[in-house]
Design brief:
The chain has 6 helices and 4 strands, in the order E-H-H-E-H-E-H-H-E-H. With 133 residues, the protein is α/β, with parallel strands linked by helices. It has one domain: Rossmann fold (3-Layer(aba) Sandwich). The longest helix has 17 residues, at 30-46.
């Protein structure tokens, strides 16, 4: 367990994932995704990590980046976990690049983490913060 609590910001599609029913279905439906995320957040909390999310709307990139920047500035973050939905689809590359560049400029001390699925958030935290057990 981390000796001092650490803060992780996740940048995911959040509620905007509903705009892509095929994406939701690929992970077993909305209830299953919520279960996976809740389990991972509980694991992270138990290991000394506080997790907050900023929902990125792929249909409104300008507003999303504006809100993302404000969230990054709202506190010091130990880690920024970018979800697969944002970085794993070629059609979202411009939005992904904008998010990464804003993070690099606004919070250069924040460790960048890259998740692969809704159920690997805690594993991603463990991979990047060895003290997470």
């Amino acid at each position: 367990m981390a000796t001092q609590r650490k803060s992780i910001l996740t940048a995911t599609f959040g509620e905007y994932a509903r705009l892509n029913p095929a994406l939701i279905a690929s992970y077993g439906g909305e209830a299953n995704i919520e279960r996976m995320i809740s389990t991972n957040v509980r694991q992270a909390n138990a290991a000394g990590f506080d997790v907050d999310n900023i929902a990125i709307n792929p249909e409104d990139p300008a507003d999303s980046i504006k809100r993302f920047e404000a969230k990054l500035r709202s506190q010091d973050w130990d880690g920024l976990l970018v979800g697969w939905g944002l970085r794993g689809n070629q059609s979202h590359t411009v939005l992904f690049e904008a998010a990464v560049n804003v993070a690099r400029e606004v919070a250069p001390q924040t460790r960048m983490l890259f998740g692969n699925a809704p159920d690997d958030m805690f594993m991603t935290i463990q991979r990047n913060f060895p003290e997470a057990k």
